[in-house]
Design brief:
The chain has a two-stranded antiparallel ribbon with strand order 1-2. The termini are close together. Helix 2 packs across helix 6, helix 6 packs antiparallel against helix 8 and helix 7 packs across helix 8. The chain contains eight helices and two strands; from the N terminus they run ααββαααααα. Helices cover 71% and strands 6% of the residues.
Length: 233
């Protein structure tokens, strides 16, 4: 039976799980404005744009192309679908994928599945990418995941679970930061939340929607940590 109440927490694996998330968070914040995190930021932008694309397809729309730019921006060109569901899917989708990666890191088998599915998704997007930044990102991360997989299976360098966890934490933090940067720090009028406010003006403005989405992103991250502890208990 799942230990939903987390009785006798925390065991060794649970402590390592929480400590690793804490260390990754500190490392990400310290290195945030350095080139070292750029590939991981771009892969997070990719997941943001891919979430728009998934929402479009799920609402019977067509995806005409996806772009990720070196300045950490991106765009998904869609036609049809339900626009008020497609717009929030970027921020919330990247937070959701962050949660999925965090949970997948709790077990080697699930980490392998996550890495394999992610590589397959990158391969599919490679053929619909509209610019070379995204194509290069897809190729680079497919090679990166393949190298990590080979090291995991053939050597004592077994870091696949930690790589998957890092991608998860990075996605969770980046989505929250992106909301803050677009809507509070710089106030980008073309942001998803500002566009969503134009569609749904009755509740609040773009900043208000950004705060709501940011809170949901924090819930995703907190939920991932809680469920991770339950899985490891």
């Amino acid at each position: 039976m799942p230990n939903w109440e987390l009785k006798n927490c925390c065991k060794h694996d649970q402590v390592v799980f929480l400590a690793t998330i804490g260390v990754f968070t500190v490392v990400i914040l310290v290195l945030w404005r350095t080139f070292l995190l750029t590939p991981f930021k771009l892969i997070t932008v990719f997941l943001h744009e891919a979430s728009h694309a998934v929402a479009c397809k799920l609402t019977c729309g067509d995806v005409e192309g996806i772009q990720v730019h070196a300045n950490e921006g991106g765009i998904t060109q869609t036609r049809g679908g339900i626009y008020w569901l497609i717009l929030p899917a970027g921020y919330l989708g990247s937070s959701f994928w962050g949660m999925v990666f965090v949970l997948a890191s709790t077990n080697l088998t699930s980490a392998r599945i996550a890495a394999g599915c992610f590589a397959l998704a990158l391969l599919v997007v490679l053929f619909v990418a509209k610019n070379w930044t995204l194509r290069g990102l897809c190729i680079g991360f497919i090679i990166f995941l393949a190298v990590i997989w080979v090291l995991q299976e053939t050597t004592k360098v077994r870091i696949l679970r930690y790589v998957i966890l890092f991608i998860g934490v990075m996605n969770s933090l980046f989505s929250i930061y992106d909301i803050y940067d677009d809507l509070i720090s710089r106030r980008v009028n073309s942001s998803d939340a500002e566009k969503f406010a134009e569609l749904c003006p009755c509740c609040c403005n773009g900043v208000g929607w950004g705060v709501i989405w940011g809170m949901i992103s924090l819930i995703f991250l907190s939920g991932a940590m809680y469920l991770g502890l339950v899985i490891l208990s």
